[in-house]
Amino acid sequence: MKRSARNPVTSRPALLGAVVMLALTSASVAAADDGRGPLGVTVTAPADARTARVGALFGADGSGRPDRGHFCTASVVHSPAHDLLVTAAHCITHVDGKLFFAPGYRDGRAPYGMWPVGEWVLPEGWTADKDEDSDVAFAHVGEVDGRRVEDVVGGNRFATGTVAGAGAVTLFGLPDARDTPVMCTDRPVARGLTQQRVHCPGFSGGTSGSPWLNGSGQVVGVLGGHQRGGSTADVSYSVVLGRAAAALYRTATGS
């Protein structure tokens, strides 16, 4: 599962940046549908509007300040209150205490600040029995200097009802062995009716919760689900975002 190195028993093997970049020589070179480059190749993500909305989750130290090591990935999604994140439900299963979100995290810096994570919104299927088909969660974040996170970095639309394989998706994630985000574009395929998978090398521990964005910049998947995201760094999973995910979003936004 793609959890953090802080939980080594359940983590994927951590891959160093050099190993991630080796994927350039071995992955498919088919053209991506949205023109962003070849399929199945993982590279360092540029600092732009897309990656500003994706960030790392941090725990708190004994004084209540952000811990040094990050774990899991989350991203800002549009909401009426402009304060909502989406990630994988399994990212918070063993987390106690205060959390922080650092959008656009890169090179050990949080260019848009550290945002305190508040209320989590989890599906009943996850809270009842850790159902892998319910591995999606939302969280509200507090204001920083009187500003809301979506007003600072923007937010992607959370889109449900998309058929797996209808188009290529781009994954953005923060492996816990790196301080720079990675990205990869490929076409997902269905795994039964409730899960989808994609081949993107180098999405190791820490990338759980990574958004899958379609060509319109909508979140159509969240890295998690089967095997809590996958048992190897080369194949990643997401719950198919259907009616249950839509209902969870409505609960999170009060709409």
UniProtKB/TrEMBL annotation:
Protein's recorded name: Serine protease
Signal peptide segment: 1-31
Highest taxon in the source lineage: Bacteria
UniProt KW keywords: Hydrolase, Protease, Signal
UniProt GO BP: proteolysis
Xref: PROSITE patterns: TRYPSIN_HIS (PS00134)
Record lineage: Bacteria, Bacillati, Actinomycetota, Actinomycetes, Kitasatosporales
InterPro entries assigned: Peptidase_S1_PA, Peptidase_S1_PA_chymotrypsin, TRYPSIN_HIS
GO MF entry, a single one: serine-type endopeptidase activity
A Pfam short name: Trypsin_2
Record has Protease as a keyword: yes
Tagged with keyword Nucleotide-binding: no
